[in-house]
Amino acid sequence: MTAPLVEQLKGGLDAPICLTWELTYACNLECVHCLSSSGRRDPRELTTDEAKAVLDELHDLQVFYINIGGGEPMIRRDFFELLEYSIDRGIGVKFSTNGAFIDAEKARRLASMDYLDIQISLDGTDAVTNDAIRGEGSYDTAIRAMNHLRDAGFGEFKISVVVTRHNVDQLDEFKTLADSFGAQLRITRLRPSGRGADSWHDLHPTQAQQRQIYDWLIAHGDNVLTGDSFFHLNALGQETGTGPLPGLNMCGAGRVVCLIDPIGDVYACPFVIHDEFKAGSVRDEGGFANVWKHSDLFSELREPQSAGACASCGSFDACQGGCMAAKFFVGIPLDGPDPECVDGHGEAAILAASAVMKPRPMMDHSKPARVATPGRVPVAIGRR
Amino acid sequence: MTTTPLASMLDRPLELHPQVALRPEPFGALAYHYGNRKLIFLKHPDVVLVVQALGDQPTVGAALRSCDIDQARWPSFEKAFIALIESEMLHDRTVG
After folding, report:
1. What is the distance in angstroms between the Cα of B14 and the nearest Cα belonging to chain A?
2. What CATH architecture applies to the domain B6-89?
C-alpha cells in the first residue's frame, strides 16, 4: 500500500517542482513588504556563466520550469540571455517583475518566446492603495507594462497580488482588471519576511478578513492562482464543510520548493532568507543537486515533523500548522500555531513571542534610508 | 449494461502529447505539459509503465496487456487516465 501523495511529497522529491530563483537584489522599487529586502545589487551575485551552469544542472535534474524574481530581474544586463538559455534547455520560465523595464519593444520580444510566463506585481487596483506599498508611480508603471504586453499580443500574463488588509476588499476589482487584460489573477499571502518583518503587523489581513479571503477563494478559486499559499485557511473549510482550497495543501519548503538567492545560496523557500534555513550554495562542490539531495537542512525538513502545540487541535490535518516562515519571523516556535491561525491561536502565540528576541531577516540590501530634507537650507559660504 | 469510462477508452489509440515530459519520482512520476503548464502526479509506477508503453502500442488496452497488468486491476487505472486526457497530456494519435 502506498502512502497518500502528500505524505510522499513531504519525504521530498528527486528535484524541486517549484524552484524560485532571485536573479538580483537590485531593484528600482523599495516595496515595504519586499520578502528579500531588495534594493542594491550584491557584488557577489552569480555571473552569467555561473547562472548558465546552474541552468545546465536544472536541465539535468529535469526541473520543468523556474520562477524568476528578485529584486527586479530585468535589471540584469544578461536577463534576456539567461531567459533564452533556460528556455532553449527546456526549462520554462515564469518571471515576476514590476514592469518598469517592459517597453513596447521588449514586450514584443517577450511575446515571441515560448514557455514563458510573466507576473506583473500589483498591490492595489488604484494608485493610492498600490503606491502606499510599492512606491510612488509604481501603479502607473505596472499598468503601462500591461498595456505593452497586451498590445504586443503576449497573451495571458499574470497579475500578482500580495493580499493585505488594505487591498482585500479589492479582490473582485483585481479579477475585473485581470479579465479586462485577458490576464490571469494570482493572489498570495503576505509573510513577515524581508522588509515585511517590519510592515507585517500593520499590513496583514485581520481575522475577519482571513475568512473573507477563504470565502472568495472558494467562490473564485478555480480561475485564480495562489501558489498554494493560503493553506493555513483550510480549517475554515472543516467548519463549513466547503473543504480545502484547491492545490497542494502543505508546506513545500525543502521538500518540493526551494530558493536560490542572487549570490547562489540555497534556502528552503523564498520567505526564509535567514542562516537557519540556508541549506548550502550552488557554488559548493556538487552544486545545486548536492544541496537539494544531501544537505542536512533539507534532510531534516523531509523527516516527519512534530505537530507541537497544535497536536491536540482538531484542525491540524487541515492547516498543517500553517507557514513556517510566518511563524519564524514573528518569533513563534516552528511547532507552534501560525500567527494567522483561523482558530485564533495565533494572537496568544504572537503575544508570548513578544517577550523573546525575534530572528531578524538577513541579507538586507535595502537602499540607505533617505534623510528627509524639509526644504533647502541656504548655506552662506561667505561673500564674493 | 452501461459502458464505463475505461471500457470506452480501451480501444482508443492514445499517446503522450509531444509537449509532455515525464520525470521519474519515488512514487511514480511527474508529468508536465509545456503547452498548458499543467502538472500531474502519476501516483503508481505501473501507471508510468503503461503511459510509456502507449507510444509503442496501438491502443490503451494493448498497452495494459503489454505491461502484464492483470485485467482485474484495469479499473484502478481509470482515474489516472481520465486526468491525463482532461489535461490534454494524452491525446488520440493522428495517422500520418
Report:
1. 23
2. Alpha-Beta Complex (3.90)
Beta strands in A210-364 (DSSP E): 224-225, 257-260, 265-267, 278-281
Q: Quick: pLDDT tens for A124-150.
A: 999 999 999 999 999 999 999 999 999
ipTM, two decimals, is 0.85
> Which of A121, A54, A90 lies closest to A259 in space, CA to CA?
A54
Write the single-letter amino acid at A28: N
Which of B23, B47, B73 best tests the A interface by mutation, with the highest count of A CBs <10 A?
B23
The answer to whether the CB of A23 falls within 8 A of the CB of A97 is no
Nearest CA in chain A to B21: A64
Q: Which of A1, A6, A10, A17 to mutate to test the interface with B (most CBs of B within 10 A)?
A: A17
- Cα torsion angle, A347, A350, A354, A360, sign: negative
Burial of A112 (0-12, 13-18, 19+ CB in 10 A): exposed
Q: Helices marked H in A44-193 — which ranges?
A: 48-60, 79-88, 104-111, 127-134, 138-151, 171-180
Name the residue ranges covered by the structural domains of chain B. 6-89
- B52 burial (CB, 10 Å; 0-12 / 13-18 / 19+) is middle
Tell me the three cell numbers of residue A249: 495543501
φ/ψ of residue A352, rounded to 5 = -60, -35
- How does pLDDT run across B35-77, given as a tens digit for each residue? 999 999 999 999 999 999 999 999 999 999 999 999 999 998 9
Is the distance from CB of A330 to CB of A340 less than 8 angstroms?
A: no
Query: Would the CB atoms of A2 and B39 count as touching at under 8 Å?
Result: no
Place of cell 477563504: A214
